[in-house]
Amino acid sequence: MKTRIAEVFQKQFGGEGAFFASSGRINLIGEHTDYNGGYVFPGAIDKCLMAEIRLNGTDKVRAFSIDCDDYCEFGLEEADKPAALWARYIFGVCRETRKRGGKVEGFDTVLAGDVPLGAGLSSSAALESTYAFAINELFGNKIGSFELARIGQSTEHNYCGVNCGIMDQFASVHGKKDNLMLLNCKTLEYKYYPFNPVGYKLVLLDSCVKHELASSAYNKRRASCENAAAAIRRRHPEVEFLSDAHRLWLEEVKGEIPAEDFLRAEYVIGELQRVLDVCDALERGDYETVGEMMYQTHFGMSKLYEVSCEELDFLNRLARLHGVTGSRVMGGGFGGCTINLVKEELYDAFIADAKKQFAAKFGHEPKVYDVVISDGARRL
Ligand code: GLA
Fold it and tell me: Domain extents for the chain?
């Protein structure tokens, strides 16, 4: 990828720049908990977005995306927002850096990546984090790593219409080889967890389903949670996020909120506890419990949070039939991947059968990605 980027950069702009990269992410457990002030348990993966960048001494950014085969030039004022989504991510990062007092001027850049798009592996966070990190270095800004993640998150909110939590950008910036990260999204404290489940493999099965309306449905889920939290807060003022609420407090407001909001909140409160249970289980090396929690998460995401789909439910059921230790839809949902914790001796048969059965039902095979936990944002 690096060689290809260098060739295109040379052809497009002449000479060479500095290389930066940041990664996609997986999440072991803790889904839709980040914007509810709960825990998440992600890790960066060995699929990244890479960019070559060189300051150009103007007030314009000139960018070429190899994956979109598209060139875009834009200024750095609010009115200069580009129409192409891929360029808007870069623009948003520049604007959000400036809003935080950072210096940003024009640069030339070529980018490419191998994080599958729309698969729930946070290709957009990888893009945002690459530029947030690179701009911080190249312009000598001293913005801390958490704020770099926030720059990516605010880019989603303010320039891409997705009211996301902090998990993806956090994981992309802070990822560390062979480690998952337990992040408390309320206090922003985090801890690295060496993750090497001996005898097991983590594998993703990509349904290749992408839902057009995923971002508006995502925003709607978040609004439901906030509505439930607000109802609970009227009785229990100490509740800032759903993560502060007891299950019984949710029951108290059952008649006061739409049934749909109740189900969403019910899922979240269950999921908050499951992350903690998974941490305890991991410390004991008890992967059976980890896996069982993953299945429970899938059930909740499918039936209560309603962010799964037929294809993902199919893959989840198949995992169960094969005796796979844990399996669930990963990330925001509405398509994308299942994450599977599989005993090594079951791996080959499970993958072969998943491909065959899925293709027989849906007309194409799922894509298979073995997970390798890797570093996050970096200069190459
Ligand atoms: C998307 C969002 C994250 C998080 C997950 C669900 O990936 O970007 O902030 O909410 O969905 O856990």
Answer: 2-195, 200-370
In the predicted structure, residue 53 carries a pLDDT above the cut 80: yes
Mean pLDDT of the chain, nearest integer: 97
Residue 148: enclosing H or E segment and its boundaries? helix 145-159
Over 332-353, what HEC string results? CCCEEEEEEEEEHHHHHHHHHH
Reported as a single tens digit per residue, the pLDDT across 19-31 is: 999 999 999 999 9
Q: How far is CA 134 from CA 70, 89, 107, 113, 117, in A?
A: 21, 14, 11, 16, 22
**Per-residue pLDDT for 118 more than 90?**
no
- Of 108, 168, 206, 244, the active-site residue reads 168
Closest CA to 121 of 368, 365, 330: 330
At 369 the pLDDT is 97
CATH entry 3.40.50.620 includes domain 200-370? no
Pocket probe mutation, ligand 1, options 26, 115, 127, 167, max atoms within 8 Å of Cβ: 167
Distance 332 CA to ligand 1 centre (A): 5
pTM over 0.85? The answer is yes
344 CB burial (10 A radius; 0-12, 13-18, 19+): exposed
**Protein residues with CB under 6 Å of any ligand 1 atom:** 31-32, 34-35, 122, 164-165, 167-168, 331-332
- C-alpha 337 to ligand 1 mean position (Å): 13
Name the pLDDT band for 214 (thresholds 50, 70, 90): confident
Catalytic residue flag (residue 168): yes
Ligand 1 centroid to residue 240 C-alpha, Å: 19
Asked if the model's pLDDT at residue 212 lies above 80, the reply is: no
Q: What is the pLDDT of residues 286-344, one digit of tens each?
A: 999 999 999 999 999 999 999 999 999 999 999 999 999 999 999 999 999 999 999 99
Q: From edge to edge, which strands make up the β-sheet containing 335-343?
A: 326-329, 335-343, 200-210, 367-370
Which option is the CATH number for 2-195: 3.90.170.10, 3.30.230.10, 3.40.250.10, 1.20.1560.10?
Answer: 3.30.230.10
Given a cut of 80, is residue 213 above it in pLDDT?
A: no
Residue closest by Cα to atom 8 of ligand 1: 164
What number does the ligand 1 atom closest to the CA of 31 have? 12
